[in-house]
């Protein structure tokens, strides 16, 4: 399976924070925001990842993450000339996907919990995640029949049929590129990811997994939600004495890098808590 992180857009909802920097590079507590979606893909075992962003921002991501080799993964980069919808990512990434199953995650979304690490990612059907939210009209909304079966998905409906929004993590089979190419722009002038989900729903190939009580999804694309996401990470890290979104630790736990390589990554950061944490994890690994 391959993974795509869509980190484009202009970030206007976060102005003035994003007038000079991509929102996906803003700090979400103690790490750049993009660490969290990257960590989600890595935890699912995905090692080939494409980051899509604007031409002016792409170099900053390359400076931050390089080619991924220090993490035992491969990271490639592609330009989104202008934001024309989430589904556009599959057209931009066609050469990268090359007929393989692909997971697309939005660069400003945080996922945490056991529900995102299930091997169901590798099944044949398309897979999306449904989260109960207070403001479903901001998202794609899942509609259910009286028997509880998924019967519709609507994009930002004025009158939502449920409180379940489709979270910003989508897993599709190799047909998704051709499906994306067949779409027509919506009234917003975008290729809507909801239209891809409708295609798979109508063909009987869409699975919707509702998040459990131990799963968390947060869209950090507004000032308020960015602050709340940072609070969540801070609280979880302090109460559990672990790091959330720590890409180096995930690479080590997956066996993609050694304890010595993890120690090497932590050493330049030894004067701050993040580097000290990496070195402690590496030390425990060496001892084990």
Automatic annotation (TrEMBL):
Residues 2-234 form the Nucleotidyl transferase domain. Pfam families: NTP_transferase (PF00483). It catalyses: dTTP + alpha-D-glucose 1-phosphate + H(+) = dTDP-alpha-D-glucose + diphosphate. Its EC number is 2.7.7.24. It comes from the Bacteria. Its cofactor is Mg(2+). Keywords: Magnesium, Metal-binding, Nucleotidyltransferase, Transferase. GO terms for molecular function: glucose-1-phosphate thymidylyltransferase activity; metal ion binding. The keyword Hydrolase does not apply. NCBIfam families: rmlA (TIGR01207). Catalyzes the formation of dTDP-glucose, from dTTP and glucose 1-phosphate, as well as its pyrophosphorolysis. Belongs to the glucose-1-phosphate thymidylyltransferase family. This is Glucose-1-phosphate thymidylyltransferase. It comes from Rossellomorea marisflavi.
